[in-house]
């Protein structure tokens, strides 16, 4: 699981978003099945970064705002991507997005990562 996430991060930087998302979704599925919350957070962080790199700004901002907290040991991987998305969407939209992210549970964040939007 963790190795899939680690392999996906350089792919994002190289613009191989689809490949990275495939690895990250696979890692998320495995981590969820195993009940490994920390690995789930790593995969969610990567998915948020991939979306941010592909300018899928609203879901990226929501997911990155969710993972940008002390509950995520991989928070440092989210911070720069969140800053980039926040700059693109603007401060007013980002305030609203942070509010929506604060209401998410881990299960809802996983659903967002799977479908690309909140249901």
Mean pLDDT: 94
Straight-line distance between termini = 26 Å
Query: What series of H and E elements makes up the topology?
Result: HHHHHHH
According to DSSP, the number of beta strands is 0
Strand count, sense and barrel status of the largest sheet are: none
Shape: globular
Radius of gyration: 13 Å
Helical residues, percent: over 70%
What count of helical segments does DSSP give? Answer: 7
Integer count of domains? 1
Structural class: mainly alpha
Give structural notes:
The chain has 119 residues and is mainly alpha-helical. The chain has one domain. It has helices at 2-13, 17-34, 37-53, 57-67, 76-89, 91-102, 106-115. Helix 1 (2-13) runs parallel beside helix 3 (37-53), helix 4 (57-67) packs antiparallel against helix 5 (76-89) and helix 4 crosses helix 6 (91-102).
Name the descriptors.
119 residues, 0% strand, mainly alpha, globular
